[in-house]
Amino acid sequence: MISIAALATLSILLGGAAGPVLARSRWPLRLPGVAMAAWLGTLAATLAALAGLVAMALFDKPGLGHHVIEWLLSYLKHHKSPSSDTTYLMSVLPLAAATILAAIATRRYRRTVTLRRHHREALDFVTQPSHDFPDVRLIDHPVPVVYCLPEHERQIVLSSGALHRLDAIELRAALSHERAHLGRRHHLILTLVDAAGTALAWLPSFRAARDHLPPLAEMAADDEAARNSGPDVVAAALRKLAISPCPTGGLAAGPADRSVLTQRLARLEGGTTPHGTYVHLLSRTAIALSVAIPVVVCAAWADAIPLFC
How confident is the model at residue 39 (pLDDT cuts 50, 70, 90)? Predict the structure, then answer.
């Protein structure tokens, strides 16, 4: 039977130590997709452990949830309700804290989605569909820009400056980069991590995840584009797009930070992009572990909660 102490220890280890360890490691630069799965597994398991603490405070004797269930069951025949105990009020505190944190995360998530929607609505007035690419919208602007926005029929935005600056192979690599973002749902992942990190910024792992996951998402998309077009082509496209920052709410082939650009170019030009089969195997393993850890944690604390007398 798992105890509150065990869940608290797991929360501290994962929420306080695991993230900083991942942030200091060098291997995520070689395997960004696997590293993203490791980060997400760490965050998911931490949330599961915290949820377990709240649930045990509510439903373990003499928690508020336990008293509510017993009160409802007292109307059943042959069920004796226990005597009231004022100490159940202490279980309200974790519930109140969890409610406040959930409200903070929800507000942040809605703000990000609203900004993205406003940007998308503005694009509808200044862009036109591409005749060559069914998922691309064209904008007449001299600055070379290629980025993607979700929740749109044509989710990739391409400027006339990018069309003139990139050759055909480089353009294909840039579009492959954006399609990798869309196919792997990087927008949703980063938006959820940002929302959770805003609410749980006092936990080092969540605070670090907000800074380290976006560059990893870019590197993972670089790897996908490199497998399709070659790392040298992707690096050349990056250099030509380096003068344009990514608009708010989008994910771009061009960098948002010079230090991130340096890392991405070093990976591509140094031949550190991993082989596709190798990455897919490790990514699937890491994702399976990231799903299994919180499931095991949730099952453990659910089994430990005595709902009835």
Answer: very high
Instruction: Count how many residues are written for the chain.
Output: 309
Beta-carbon contacts of residue 178 (< 8 Å; ≥ 6 apart): 146, 147, 148, 155, 156, 221, 251, 252, 253
Mean pLDDT of 28-40: 89
What does the block give as tokens for 274?
Answer: 């991993």
Handedness of CA 137, 171, 280, 27 (dihedral sign): negative
Q: Structure pTM? A: 0.82
pLDDT, residue 83, reads: 45
Highest mean pLDDT among 7-11, 197-201, 257-261: 197-201
Strands 251-252 and 156-159, sheet pairing: unpaired
What is the rounded CA–CA span in Å between residue 29 and residue 142?
Answer: 33
Report the run of H or E that residue 147 belongs to, with start and end: strand 146-148
